[in-house]
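Many introductory courses stop at the sequence. We go one step further.
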Amino acid sequence: MRLPLALLLVLILDTHASAAAPPPVEQWIVVVAPDYEKAVVPLIEHRREQGLRVVVVAVRDVLSFRDLAVGDAIPLRDHVRKLWKSHPGRSSILLVGAVAGAGRGVVPALLGTAGRMRGQPSDAGFGCAEGKRLPTVAVGRFPARNVADVKAMVDKTLALERDNGPGAWRRRVTVLAGVPAYNPVVDRLVENVAFARFDRMHPTWVGRAVYTADGSRFCLPGKELRSRSLEMLRDGQAFILYLGHSDAGGLYGGPTTAFLDRADWGEMRIDHGGSVFITFGCNGCQLSGRDGEGYGLAAVRNPRGPVAVLGSHGVCFASMVQLACDGLFARAFRSKLPDRLGDCWLGALEGVSKGSIDFLSYRVLDQVDGDPRIPQATQRQEHLEMFTLLGDPALRLPQVADDITLDRVKRIAPGTSIRVRGTLPDRMRGATVRVSLMRSPASGPLDLETVPMKAGRDKDKALLANYRRANRFEVVGERVVSEGTTFTLSLDLPKELPRGRLHLRLVATTETEEVIRVQSLEVIRRGD
């Protein structure tokens, strides 16, 4: 069959035009309470400079006095939903204001509809299609009480996005974890499960950890838990992860051990990187309640604290946390971070909604930290409305290039030397290159001390020594300055190597930029 020449030309031109058409512009919808319209202007201008399609929704133009008086956010939800449904590209939504109240600083929250979230404040519905609970559009909130709060959150967002210089914090995760209310067997099981998941992180990431269970190599003496955790956080990181018990007032370190409370999160200082704080403790992002707001709200309002917080408004269950973690890790901790924070929140919720969990794991977790009376399907639905993002979902996450060309190191063996050679991009000419052999997060160091059972100075000394060794993931490392764009060095390996996966990690640094490259290694051991 022959096509007429005119029709053939139309098809060719149409195909060419479709192939050449740029992707739709990303849309950023900012919903602002009247009192904060001026305070958010610097962020609005910044998003426009980034090329986003900015839509400003003034609450006073959508909601009536009656709507605000009774906290009815449905007309606002419907208005925002029309905006993102009619846009051909991706969208994100930032709500700027308190969730409730009678003043001019309020952007009312929606009310949850599933299980224990019924009637509770929830922002997720602003990003959900009609009749759905899994958002397709990321939603975040600046939970401001006053203009100073808005300015603090805007300034932190801008500072993180404008920090393009080098820094170890860019690929560092600080983990705070523990379940000291259980027994030693369950504590060790949960620790092994947690750190096995951290092994799924791309090896460009490095971490530090505190685990508040007595049998853990990451455990600190109780009297040093709070101070050393604050010191660790102050040094800076891209992400803070908390896995453990909490209430709205703070993290739980045990019946007699002080951990990080609401005041600590509201007053701490993070010197490097804005830090996205992801807490899977109960009530971390409680928007309102009998015991006040969650510690996550204090953290995100703190001018020197985390730039954003992802956490739960209510009591979250261990099995749902596992699903959320799996979804988060699948989306976030790859060789390249998602461009924007909202993707991390959406990933966690997708894990809750669609992630798989085997029958035995679910039953065990639900028995020790859940509620067997609530069906799994209901638990998934209520947790979709429970997990909240405090911060701008359009926040650009820190990226690190990996364009180092590295000669392949095929195998390594204990007690030998390896020659590492590579080529840097031209912009990194003359960079300092750190070459490290790294063990995985799930592996343990070879020189752990035996911890005495009896409480006292000897036990504290052993715990602290093991904590330091456990957080030393570099097995051996050397530094060299490149000759132009090339570098070569020899790395002498110790006679004993840790079990588990090992990686060769290269970090090239100049005054203005940092580049990272990682190569997984095959280890030849005696008896293999």
